[in-house]
């Protein structure tokens, strides 16, 4: 994906009050919803780059973490969707666009709205 044509989002469900299974369920639910959207070019879980020694499973995934690729023109719609779906959840959102990266954390609806606004402005520049 060329830097000037797309946006890569990484969403990490990191609520300390949830166990790893609950965080992973949140990520899997969001992945299923994002796959239904025409605006999403790709969405997937994140492979663990350093699986535990002796791990026999192929392609172990990082818990509660997903990535999505979208075109720049669909950013506003996807951000609005994420604002509706993620409100009230503790997350870390990483946005990569135009060769730059922005990382924001949110633990409440207000923080999420601020984070999404910052991401929109970041992508627009």
Shape: globular
Task: List the secondary-structure elements in sequence, H or E.
Answer: EHEEHEEH
**Helix percent band:** 25-40%
Largest sheet: 5 strands, antiparallel
What is the mean predicted local confidence, pLDDT?
A: 85
What is the spatial order of strands in the main beta sheet? Answer: 2-3-1-4-5
Question: Summarize this, please?
Answer:
The chain has helices at 20-35, 75-86, 109-124, and strands spanning 6-13, 40-47, 61-71, 91-97, 100-106. With 125 residues, it is an alpha+beta fold.
Structural notes for this entry:
The chain is α+β, with helices and mostly antiparallel strands and 125 residues long. It is built from three helices and five strands. A five-stranded antiparallel beta sheet has the order 2-3-1-4-5. Strand 4 and strand 5 form a beta hairpin. The chain is globular, with a radius of gyration of 15 Å.
Q: How are the secondary structure elements laid out?
A:
Layout lengths: L5 E8 L6 H16 L4 E8 L13 E11 L3 H12 L4 E7 L2 E7 L2 H16 L1
Antiparallel strand pairs: 1-3, 1-4, 2-3, 4-5
Which key phrases capture this entry?
single chain; 125 residues; alpha+beta; 3 helices; 33% strand
